Amino acid sequence: MTNFPSLINANKYESYLSLFYKLIREMYTGRSKILSKYKISEKAHFLPVEAPEWLLGITDTPSDHLPITYCPTEYLLDPRETIKFCPECMRAGYHSVFFMLKSISMCAVHRCNLLSMCGLCCNRFLGTIPIDSYFDCPVTVGRTDIICRTCKLSWPDISEGHLDLSERADLLSALTVWKSHSDWYRSIVQGASQSSQLCKDYYSDVTRDSAIAPLEARYKLTSTERLLGMIEGGQKAYWIKFHNNLPLSEMATEQYHNLREYVAFYCLEIKQKYLADHDECCLKINSLTGYMPMHEARAPLCVPALAYVVLRLKLACAIWPTPNSVASEKSCFDNLFRYIEPDIKPAELRKLIMFIFLKIMGDIQSNVTRGRSFNILLRTQSVTNDFFYFRRTMYRWRTVCRSDFEMDSSCWISADGTYNKLSVMWYHDQSPYKAMMII
Ligand SMILES: [Zn+2]
Ligand SMILES: [Zn+2]
Ligand SMILES: [Zn+2]
Predict the structure, then answer these.
(1) Is cis: bond before 293, omega within 30 of 0?
(2) Per-domain boundaries in the chain
């Protein structure tokens, strides 16, 4: 076996698997020989949590080439099961580390969808089969520079220089586009390691869409989805500074009554500012929470009025729905008082309440526009650092109860006493398994 320093050239954001394949070629051996030389288990090789020794001999920035740098383990592909690739990149002998993330389906350089390697190509790429068989068996695995008929992967002859050099040079200079992927994913993986649920949500297919805008705003970066044109426009998100340390001192009775008065007044201000023409909407939606009917009761969808009703519920209850119904308008503000210092400045309190209202309103729009029916749930665990952003609402949605008569029949608010819950229903989605909006 050859000794280091190696002649392998690590390209920008090339996957460690791609580098390992080059190492196999350079050492002219199989995977197991190299792994046993470095005393690396198969498991550690396929889901590496730190840079393996062989990689340190190839590059000074090993973390750039490891998928764990960009993504928590549970959202990485296990290469023993799936290897995605870009046919254009592979033609030049390049496999990006980002192709190892479950959430990535496109090549940023070539803007094409990724393909999956067939079993034979996987075996070859991972060094599972003996390297001599590359040359022995021209029909299946074949020579070094063949194209696989099953998965369309081309195997360039890395060592013998049969490549189109100018094409390769073009690719290498284009690899800088991965830098923005790197910045984006490094920020999110760090957030996830600090247990931000929003960051974890980003990695999951189910919740990714709703996490993108707030994460772009938090890190002041453009998401890979936006860069690749997979999403456009949408609701912009804004973060506010609020330190939600639990109150250190106990609230005196007098402070409690003073704060109650302030909060009641700020709620009234919101009503006057945002709900001037929505009195009737407010009454209807509020009455849905006041008593929970045995059968379904409905109110037309009104985004600001629903936001206001949910605001009042959030200020009052830590958890909702509860077995007993709560009339949002008659409720106290005891849940809010669990989070604020008794000597909070009125101006700050006012901002906070306005913020919660705008947040709920933005979240309602975001959920409604997804076109799925959803239940509204209030939970204490939602109030973490991830809570303090809101999405901008559009005028069209703030006035949906007045302007869009079509909506009346296709979308409504429903209350159901059997489960004591409030839902926003789409006519086309009445399945009992609903999405959830957790506030
Ligand atoms: Zn590509
Ligand atoms: Zn293949
Ligand atoms: Zn209205």
Answers:
(1) no
(2) 16-179, 191-239, 253-438
Ligand 1 centroid – CA 153 distance (Å): 12
Instruction: Give the span between the Cα atoms of 215 and 193, in whole angstroms.
Output: 15
**Rounded CA gap, 66 and 314, in Å?**
43
Euclidean distance between CA atoms 200 and 203, whole angstroms: 6
At 9-29, the pLDDT tens digits run: 889 999 999 999 989 888 888
| Cα dihedral 411→235→378→318 (10° resolution) | -150
- State the Cα–Cα distance between residues 53 and 48, nearest whole angstrom: 11
> What is the whole-number distance in angstroms between the Cα of residue 173 and the centre of ligand 1?
12
Rounded Cα distance between 148 and 128, Å, is 17
Nearest listed ligand to the Cα of residue 124: 2
Please report which ligand is nearest the Cα atom of 125. Answer: 2
In this predicted model, which residue has the larger pLDDT, 406 or 1? 406
Q: What angle do CA 233, 238, 239 make, to 5 degrees?
A: 150
Cα 120 to ligand 2 centre (Å):
6
Q: How far is the CA of 234 from the centre of ligand 2 (A)?
A: 39
Token output for 158: 């890395």
Which ligand is nearest to the Cα of residue 284, counting in written order?
3
Task: Name the pTM for this structure.
Answer: 0.83
Compute, in angstroms, the gap from residue 338 CA to the centroid of ligand 1.
Answer: 52
**What pLDDT is recorded for position 63?**
96
Residue among 347, 345, 358 nearest 388 (CA): 358
**80 alpha carbon – ligand 2 mean position (Å):** 14
Which residues make up the environment of ion ligand 1, defined by Cβ < 5 Å?
86, 88-89, 107, 109-110
